[in-house]
Amino acid sequence: MQEKGTISIHTENIFPIIKKFLYSDNEIFLRELVSNAVDATQKIKRLASLGQYKGELGDLRVEVAFDKEKKTITISDNGIGMTADEIKKYINQIAFSGATEFMEKFKEAKDANEIIGRFGLGFYSAFMVADKVEIQTLSYQEGAEPAYWVCDGSTEFEIGEGELEERGTEITLHINSESEEFLDKYKLQSILDKYCKFLPVPIKFGTNEQEEEDGVDEEGKPKYKTVEVDNIINETNPIWTKQPNELKDEDYLSFYKELYPYSEDPLFWIHLNVDYPFNLTGVLYFPKVKNDFDFQRNKIKLFSRQVFITDEVKDIVPEFLMLLHGVIDSPDIPLNVSRSFLQADSNVKKINSYITKKVADKLAEIFKADRKGYEEKWADIGLFVKYGFVSEEKFYDKAKDFVLLTNTNNENFTLNEYKEKVEPLQTDKDGQLIYLYTNDATKQHSFIESANNKGYDVLLMNSPIDNHFIGHLEQKLEKTSLKRVDADVADKLIKKDDAPEHVLTEEQSTKVKEIFNKAISKPAYRVELESLSPEELPVTVTQDEFMRRMKDMAAMGGGMGFYGNMPDNYKVIVNGNHKLVSRILEADTEEAQAQLAKQAFDLALLSQGLLTGADLTEFVKRSVSLI
């Protein structure tokens, strides 16, 4: 029987569009064809288990081969095969999926959804790299005749008698001149490794040489010979397809090394396994997150029935969980015809919420079971937890019980614990609770020491997310504000009723301000005279908390660009009660007064890391002259 016909589509213009533009990356032709072959193989296995197929199954596998001289790539399987009528139905009618009818026929069968394949558009991805495609196939049905189909990439096809003698399908691609890069062993191996590494049916791609013991020599030592063995490129039962109670820690760590060969061991992991109201399996690992904002995203791999789809999972996984590594597999995640882009729908939203809950529950479990171990991991997971805390309300609801605040003594507190610790001393005269923090304990050491001398505690907030974390804490915590320890002198950061009295007269105060303004002579620095404890520094340089915070966010790209363009302005706080101020007033000459004032100001700049260049050189020379 020989027959010619036209592929059933509405317009001849659509076929070249499908060939060239349906898929964003032409290498996925191999994924589609191998996936179809796997589907066909699983179907015959399923039919046999249902008693619908009585024959021998044989060694069920898919094979990929190529011939560089003939410029062909062949994908073959020993699955259900097709009759000539089924070729017309599944291959020639693009819009029809063979899986639809198969699912309808066996809809009562348990897990039938797992063996749904797609012929249709997936098959036509072959024409992205081939200018001719041939199918040789023999159906599993009793009495079926082998069939043959060929198409040159136009809407014309031929169908006739085939040559296969055993059940299955063989698809041969005649590679076009623009795609000869795929006629390469290493190129094909890399594509198979990327997309097919965990398919549930063995995939053979050529052979490998292997040493095999071959008896012993005259001295009784073993002899070896080199043999050819099948190169099976995939692990058919990856750990996410198993139950957690079947696995040990070594299994999870080994799989992690397989996914990320050059990474440090993860801190811990979560095994996902849910079948209602959607199907989802997977393993998510918590890596050691470096304390910078250059997050390594796209480390979670999305699979559908063990076929790799993408590592762009931002629609499924909340933004803050993009820091995790691992695998998610779900047949319920909707994909477009290319299987490459997620479509937002209710299932995706449910999966997103489920993963958020599982991660929060895991962290809460670790915190309660092993507080010490959790604190030891905090340096690595703190950035991640804070990111979720500020960006995902559902995560915040749980994370508020296990997010930690770390102070400059490296002590960790929950939010409630820290409130109890500092409330007695760090509540100001208006009833506002003040949390002090530093983003650079070394640079701001003098300010921290000043706060500690008053019995105040100082938090360490030096991660990239902390600007946002601080703002979020102020929103969530009642009557609480956070101030950077160098934003003002300690007495002004937490205002009390018992402020020290002025020792200077009004005339002296005016004179001191004049001396400092003249000595500094910089418009960006505004001099203010304060009545502080004599133990405080004579001069302190600070920057307004609000303005500095806005500029920090602008520097991180936080949408505060207006503030980022504004010039830096500082407040010069002169402690009118310090003995150095009295010495300045008592100096014999204006020059001596200016020199002492400038020295005190430069010391304040130096403590903030603001004294540089020529000003620093001048300070050093002046210091030598004053010794």
Any descriptors?
alpha+beta, Heat Shock Protein 90, Ribosomal Protein S5, domain 2, Rossmann fold, 4 domains, nine-stranded mixed beta sheet, five-stranded mixed beta sheet, 20 helices, cytoplasm
- Percent strand: 15-25%
Instruction: Determine Rg (CA atoms, Å).
Output: 36 Å
Shape: elongated
| Multimerization status | single chain
Number of helices in the DSSP assignment: 20
Distance between the termini: 110 Å
Q: Poorly predicted ranges (pLDDT <50, ≥5 residues)?
A: 10-14, 95-100, 108-120, 336-341
| CATH architecture descriptor name of the largest domain | 2-Layer Sandwich
Total tally of structural domains: 4
> What class do helices, strands and sheet pairing give?
alpha+beta
The tally of strands reads 22
Mean pLDDT: 84
CATH class category label of the largest domain: Alpha Beta
CATH superfamily of the largest domain: Histidine kinase-like ATPase, C-terminal domain
Written account of the structure:
Belongs to the heat shock protein 90 family. InterPro entries: HATPase_C_sf (IPR036890), HATPase_dom (IPR003594), HSP90_C (IPR037196), Hsp90_fam (IPR001404), Hsp90_N (IPR020575), Ribosomal_Su5_D2-typ_SF (IPR020568). It comes from Mucilaginibacter limnophilus. Keywords: ATP-binding, Chaperone, Cytoplasm, Nucleotide-binding, Stress response. By secondary structure, this protein is of the alpha+beta class. The chain folds into four domains: 204 residues, Heat Shock Protein 90 (2-Layer Sandwich); 135 residues, Ribosomal Protein S5, domain 2; 90 residues, Rossmann fold, CATH 3.40.50.11260; 121 residues, Up-down Bundle (Four Helix Bundle (Hemerythrin (Met), subunit A)). The chain is 36% helix and 21% strand. It is built from 20 helices and 22 strands. It has a nine-stranded mixed sheet with strand order 1-6-5-4-7-3-2-8-9, covered by helices on one side. The protein has a five-stranded mixed sheet with strand order 10-11-14-12-13, sandwiched between helices. A hairpin with a 5-residue loop joins strand 8 and strand 9. Helix 8 runs antiparallel to helix 9, helix 8 packs parallel to helix 10 and helix 9 runs antiparallel to helix 10. The longest helix is centred in the middle third of the chain and has 24 residues.
